[in-house]
Records
---
Amino acid sequence: MQPRFVGRLSLADAVTVSNAALGFLAISIATTNPGLAARLVLLAAVADGLDGVLARHVGSSAAGQYLDSLADVASFAVAPAMLVVSMVRQTGSSDTLRVGVAVAGGALFVGMAIVRLGLYTAYDTDDDVTEGVPTTLASVILAAGVLAGFTEPVVLVALTYLLAGLMVSTITYPDLLARDALIMGVVHSLAVLVPDFQGRAFPYALLTLALFYLVLSPHFYWRTTTGKTVRATEGKRS
């Protein structure tokens, strides 16, 4: 007897499942090796982009969008929240209040990420824009920040609360153009493979690009075509 998913799930779905597995690995080692956990979160983000490419060019399944959101809960909700809490415990484990605030922020981050993913799946999957900061972007900012050395608990916890609120905001974010998604993917990969190269150059670069997109894309990520100004778009799955 073969498993039920045989013949029903696509290659893109398999990559999505690997994204979830990477998220679990990041969660499981966050307390002992936060740097590796951050790299796994970024690797999950690469997988999240790859499954979208495969879905567009090879095809997906009816379960694809649901698998995608479920996987993102592990990799881009629980994993980054656990990463922040672990960093706070390592740098101020004797401060019960500080840890408590971090845990509350992590719980809020997970909750808002799940709400955002549910709303995305219900309303935004067929659009070229989405409301609220994407969970992938929020997790990349936190993970890249850790790899870049921004491990001050106050900064990480403040970012966690800020991103939790932005994920359920009504700010409109456009999809990345293919060329920009490729650039981000390359920088992601280099940040994972050689995070310490040239004084953490690639984590710094990734964090900078992610922050630019967070702040500027709702207002300035546009292009002109046929005499009209339109928001830049690109097909998506996640």
---
Amino acid sequence: MLDTDTFRKVFGSFPTPVAIVTALGVDGEPAGFTCNAFSAVSAAPPLLLLCVGKGSRTLPAILASGVFAMNFVAHHGRDTALAFAGKGERKFDAVTWRRGMAGVPVLTEDAVAYAGCTLVETVEAGDHLLLIGRIDESETFPGTAALYQQGAFGTWEPDRRLAVQH
């Protein structure tokens, strides 16, 4: 069986997009964490998949409220992504945000897009829960998306030589 360090090395060897998942706690306080384990699931209806560690402090807020936002991190928002990857208590103090659907925090300055989601299904998978959310609200913002690979942030540069000519 694959050990945890090798697992992380294997999956860290290719670039992934980065998102900050946000929710409101039962106390009305915003909660959030940085995530790179998510995917589009369906366009009709619009669904996405999010993997959340069972020990996440944001998970109880998502499960209690049934709503969350995926804030897809812009390259210029990488410091915010690093801050939300930590265990700090006051993650929202240094970021600009507004309330989206059901009051869920939307990180307007550090994201290229966000998707406001209603939780529709939860599946247990090892030390994580797979959450499927229906996208009920979304918006895009200017900027270039952040990618993360082997502990460093970068951006994607398309190979124009391979672009299809119309």
---
Amino acid sequence: MHPIIKHIQPINQDAGERVRAYLDTLTKPPGSLGELEALAIQLGAISGNTSPRVMPPQVVVFAADHGVAEEGVSAFPQAVTAQMVANFANGGAAINVFSRQIDARVEVVDVGMVSALTTPGVTLASVRAGTANMVVDDAMHADEALAAIGVGVAAVERASQAGARCMIVGEMGIANTTASSAMLAVFTGVPVAQVVGAGTGISSAQQAHKVAVIERALQNRKADADAPLEVLAKLGGLEIAAMTGAYLASAAHRLPAIVDGFIATVAALAACRLCPAVRGYLIFSHRSEELGHATALHALKAKPLLALGMRLGEGSGAALAFPLLQAASAMLREMATFADAGVSDNTTL
């Protein structure tokens, strides 16, 4: 397994409890800010102190292609992966717009596209030119999955060295909902039909075909649910593996990682199966409209911050949730205590 795992320590629960106690000294009824208080406590436990900071954030979007696209499981052709990556590099995608709103730097990483781009602004770290068709062969070899995990680790280490205090991880890869659904079905034992959604917007007939394709892949690959690297290699994607590595590295560097939608959550599940301590560093941004997302969230006992009916990917939902982390952090640093403000708290009433 990747050596980054040995550097991952559990979150600091004592620091979280100190934040919890401090929140009750602020000028508000105890618990009155609800989930924002829970978020502040988690940020304190992640950072290990009672004044966590999350600025600046770093967005990393990993891109790769999937051999299973040849089975006709997506509404878009495989060429769209490279076209959208060029759009990211040119600043025209949703994730670019939302990243500008939160002053986040965006790095786009080619971890395995079929069409290699030389567009300025794209980091070239390709492990292989797309995965194999998982219906007929393992998506990738175990060493390739490990290499892709390493690409994700390296991206977070670059971000950490540049001063990032929060990671937002996104993806692009035509047919990656198919790979994610396959992985999720194996990890959870939930029937394929219950974790396969519309993806990029396929019809009900195409969705039924997608279910059949994944069921064939599961039968042919026989991935062991208790061997997460095997599941990732046989059924996953290079960008999913890179996201898995990014979550591992975020935990190793004690950085909060905001998890986006369905594909990101499946990658987060893989990371937690590889190292359960990662779970404490993950903040779940939104509930996707993709059918399998509820199953993935349940597997991680995760409660997302937002529910906006989104299913775009790219890290878009995670970027939209980031201001809530800013608010939780600012609350701890700037809000007056009862003593500071000369306000009677409920212990003196």
---
Amino acid sequence: MGKTGALVISLDFELYWGVRDKRTLADSKKNLQGTRQVIPAILELFNKYEIHATWATVGFLFCETREELIGTLPKELPDYADPNLSPYRYVQSGALGAREQVDPYHYAPSLIRLISSCPHQYIGSHTHSHYYCLEPGQTAQTFAEDLAAFKRVARKKGYAPTSIVFPRNQFASSYLAVCKQHGFAAYRGNERSWMYEAGPGAQDTLLKRALRLADAYVNLSGHHAYKPLSASQEG
């Protein structure tokens, strides 16, 4: 009997939280507004061809209002060496609108409901705040606090995600144990090549980004198929 493979589709769903530390909101609005047109179109195609996908969602996007979002903040926050990396500081700066209807860049409960109503679509975690696990200043404890905040808001909205995608693919093996403690059984890993190695943003050089782009068109780093591992094998 021949062996069969599986293609896993996971999509990062983050809106402005995913680019907030790199681009201004003014420069991002056109693309973010386009997201609200693209997602329904993607769902229509997925439904037509019965494609299964997981949407790794930033926890802030579940919130209906600014007050609700602020109420989800953990007691212990990451103290990034680069303050610009902290979405929590951004939240406390007063940059958010009152609700999704007037601020479609920071909230997305309607889109989350749309995604979850489509057959074979699953809501996963992209951490609560688009948390960076390898940046100086954060700790495993503040990461655990962030995951706990995500689980609380997701549970409140009726979701129980068991998979996680680490923002900017930043993860360390020790943090996987934290994920397991919070009920996550699967994560998106990185390709086994030095150009895909996880690290803080300062190590993500222009050379590495250029090689990854080239690798998408020409096989520079080899093949990256994986055998599924059980939780006990992963540790």
